[in-house]
Design the sequence.
């Protein structure tokens, strides 16, 4: 892709991500009574499931995320760094990227769905451990397990996407390693 076309795509994607981050804030920035955490989470989840505007915003977010993940997998190192930079500070988009790993896992139903493994991994690489490494690990474990259960070789895909990820340690909670290192060695976390 030419530099000019990439710039145009990135500018439009950044504009859409900022708009979607604001749209999601309406639902994601709700106050929670910590003393009643499980009831509060259930209430918020039910509210979101019933709210068509939230569902539309989430569908829009996932459409942009999927296109961005696909572009990330084809991009050169400089463009991948700029894609990762485009989500910095957009907390609702970052949380949606974490959710997108689970969305990819959900769509991984047969050997023919192997693109979803790479797209989910690209989502992790873009999120780049900016939120909480524990959440990243849990989402990646589900993705790895689902691919392995289908007879895929997830280790090789994790290693391929690791080569596209950042060498810098993440900035989120418990991010004491880079996404590249996490993805490259992820198979060591999984039972044999």
Sequence:
């Amino acid at each position: 892709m030419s530099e000019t076309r990439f710039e145009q795509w990135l500018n439009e994607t950044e504009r859409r991500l900022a708009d979607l981050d604001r749209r999601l804030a309406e639902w994601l920035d709700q106050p929670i009574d910590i003393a009643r955490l499980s009831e509060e989470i259930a209430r918020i989840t039910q509210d979101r499931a019933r709210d068509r505007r939230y569902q539309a915003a989430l569908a829009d977010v996932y459409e942009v995320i999927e296109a961005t993940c696909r572009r990330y997998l084809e991009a050169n190192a400089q463009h991948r760094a700029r894609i990762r930079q485009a989500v910095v500070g957009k907390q609702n988009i970052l949380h949606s990227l974490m959710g997108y790993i689970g969305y990819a896992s959900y769509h991984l139903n047969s050997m023919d769905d192997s693109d979803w493994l790479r797209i989910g991994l690209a989502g992790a690489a873009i999120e780049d451990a900016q939120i909480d490494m524990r959440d990243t690990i849990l989402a990646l474990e589900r993705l790895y397990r689902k691919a392995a259960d289908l007879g895929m070789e997830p280790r090789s895909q994790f290693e391929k996407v690791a080569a596209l990820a950042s060498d810098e340690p993440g900035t989120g909670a418990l991010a004491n390693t880079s996404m590249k290192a996490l993805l490259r060695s992820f198979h060591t976390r999984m039972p044999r």
Notes: The CA atoms of residues 37 and 140 lie 25 Å apart. The chain has a mean pLDDT of 86. The radius of gyration is 17 Å.
